[in-house]
Amino acid sequence: MSTRRNWASYKRGVTSETWDAIVVGSGLGGLAVAAHLARRAQKRVLVLEQHYVAGGFTHVFHRPGFEWDVGVHYVGGMQPGSFLQRQFAAIGDGSLEWTDMGDVYDEVHVGNEAFRFPKGRRALREALVDRFPREESAIDGYFRAIAEVQKSSRFYFAEKAVPAWVATVGGGLLRRSLLRWSDRTTHDVLSELGTSPLLSAVLTTQYGDYGMPPKLSSFAIHAMVASHYFHGGYYPVGGSGRIAESVAPVIEAAGGAVLVSAEVKEIVIEEGRACGVRMQDGKVLRAPMIISDAGVDLTFRKLVPKSESDRHGYTEHLKHVAPSASHISLYVGLNKTAAELTLPKHNLWIYPHEDHDRAIADAEKNPDAPLPVVYVSFPSAKDPSFAERHPGRATLELVTVAPWGWFSTWDGSRWKKRGADYDALKTKLTERLLSTLDKHVPQARAHVTHAELSTPLSTKHFAAWEHGEIYGIDHGPARFREKWLKPQTKIPGLYLTGQDVVTCGVAGALLGGSICASAILKKNLLT
Ligand SMILES: Cc1cc2nc3c(=O)[nH]c(=O)nc-3n(C[C@H](O)[C@H](O)[C@H](O)COP(=O)(O)OP(=O)(O)OC[C@H]3O[C@@H](n4cnc5c(N)ncnc54)[C@H](O)[C@@H]3O)c2cc1C
Questions:
Q1: What is d(CA 212, CA 201) in angstroms, rounded to the nearest whole number?
Q2: Which parts of the chain sit beneath pLDDT 50?
Q3: How far away, in angstroms, is 463 Cα from ligand 1 center?
Q4: What is the pLDDT of residue 83?
Q5: How far apart are CA 207 and CA 216, in angstroms?
Q6: Which of 137, 373, 496, 515 has the smallest set of CB atoms within 10 Å of its CB?
Q7: Contact at 8 Å (CB) between 395 and 333?
Q8: Residue 248 confidence (pLDDT)
Q9: How much is the pLDDT for 247?
Q10: Distance between CA 525 and CA 510 in Å, rounded?
Q11: In angstroms, rounded to a whole number, what is the distance separating the alpha carbons of residues 119 and 504?
Q12: How far apart are CA 46 and CA 18, in angstroms?
């Protein structure tokens, strides 16, 4: 099972200058809409990716003997027969397999307390009640609140795919029940339920999956992410690079192409209509439909000419959304197998204390404050094909939030040539992450042969997120009121896809693609 497909480069030539649709960005949001258009409507779609590998945050990178995922550690809702599994089947060539992470998906450490999230809503409820017996009724209230969000989010997201006149007439009704939850923060809802500080801290440990602590995040995103994992965690066999590899053939079968090293400089708008893209080399490629997977900030601040963004109100709209947090990741290679090192399949989440908001605020003020969260993922233990592909080795990944401000001094410097101070900061952060690893996975350190840190500047360089955003725009209550976050834009011929249209996450990006294709083809693809 290889994840080393050689992606065709734009620099080697593009076979045609006109296409049925052009997609800017090959993240899952971009690939999904392209595959739907190809499979359902035989459209010739050109996907343009500025990086030299396709897949956006689903891409993997390699060093001799090792391979790491960049932005996929586990995906929920992939149990056989599920909605999400059908969604993946609808865009792929059938070669992508998922493996179940087992009975536990997350193990969390809050100060000296630990808790394991078991697979299954009932099992999770029981584990919580066992651990917090006096809080049974708050726990039940929590599950009821999550069920309400699950129910109402279907209508909320459906509204994004319907024609503009339907949204004008019935949009308010479709959105209303979710807004009752999304207007409140996670902290607001848990406070109303009366959960104790420790229970609240445990329930919100997965805030790392959406990037905002309880007092800032909307309860809607918390509930969506928490319920996403109720059926456990799943991992793509062969690593996350398999996702793009399984979708590209569908695009190509209809005459389309996925080209890398293909940076779009501008979306061309003529007579008020999006009709092409201007590449960095000045070449113009044309299509009656341009779809952006590059995030709303980049799309309306850089790719769409300013006069058009101003005229249609997008410059103003952008003031109402903010970039999500940025992060650092430590990619670790080991000279023993996951089995030899008894690495778990489940993730570890490590927090200094119960107050996630304070921990983040402290780190923003003082880089030497305790790391607000350390997330550890063990891809080589999750992936049954890893041992065969990389014999005698194992990998793990550590992630923590890291404010853009820690690195902004070096913005504009060149990759690998950012200077001694930057390298020293990276060394220091690497050591801090490894010492957390020592405490929780002590058997690993003696076998570490590779440790490489990415910063928000790496995210900007490779994934084109301006402030190294981990999840596009942030997920506070205000986001859910922004009606313009939908595939159809006010510029005829221009559409949006990906995580900013729905929510962050592999599932969010995929649904962003399906909703975008539904809006374009006027068919319900959310089945
Ligand atoms: C560290 C990390 C861990 C994560 N872990 C998980 C996880 O375990 N589970 C989960 O479900 N989600 C996870 N996520 C989130 C998930 O990966 C993303 O939400 C999702 O993949 C985003 O997909 P997208 O298509 O919206 O955007 P992206 O994948 O970011 O794709 C956008 C693409 O557009 C390209 N682009 C931008 N501008 C241009 C241009 N001008 N020209 C050409 N191309 C351009 C970029 O290079 C990029 O490839 C994680 C993310 C990160 C960063």
A1: 13
A2: 2
A3: 7
A4: 96
A5: 10
A6: 137
A7: yes
A8: 98
A9: 98
A10: 11
A11: 22
A12: 9
Find the 134 Cα to ligand 1 centroid distance in Å: 41
Helix (H), strand (E) at residue 186? helix 186-193
Ligand 1 centroid to residue 131 C-alpha, Å? 36
The ligand 1 site (C-beta within 6 Å) comprises 24-30, 48-51, 56-58, 71-75, 262-264, 293-294, 298, 327, 329, 399, 463-464, 470-471, 498-499, 504-509
Q: Which two tokens stand for residue 267?
A: 């979306």
CA of 30 to the centre of ligand 1 (A): 10
Residue ranges with strand state E in 188-295: 234-236, 257-260, 264-270, 273-279, 284-286, 290-292
Beta strands in 102-223 (DSSP E): 104-110, 113-118
Main-chain dihedrals φ then ψ at residue 457, nearest 5 degrees: -70, -30
CA dihedral 292, 294, 295, 297 (to 10 degrees): -100
Atom of ligand 1 nearest to the CA of 56: 49
Residue position matching structure tokens 């404050």: 369
Q: Are 460 and 395 in contact (CB under 8 A)?
A: no
End-to-end CA separation in angstroms for the chain: 30
Rounded CA-CA distance 234/250 in Å is: 23
Residue 495, CA distances (Å) to 30, 80, 167, 527 in order: 11, 32, 16, 21
Element at 87 (helix H, strand E): helix 83-91
Tell me the residue type at 59: H
Q: What is the DSSP letter of 443?
A: T
Predicted local distance difference test score (pLDDT) of residue 13: 84
Walk me through the domains of the chain, giving residue ranges and CATH numbers.
8-59+237-321+482-521 (3.50.50.60), 137-232 (no CATH)
Measured by CA distance, the residue closest to atom 15 of ligand 1 is 505
Cα(465)–Cα(472) distance, integer angstroms = 7
Instruction: Give me 365's structure tokens.
Output: 């003020």
Instruction: Describe the crossing of helices 83-91 and 506-521 by its angle, rounded to 10 degrees.
Output: 60
CA distance 359 to 349: 14
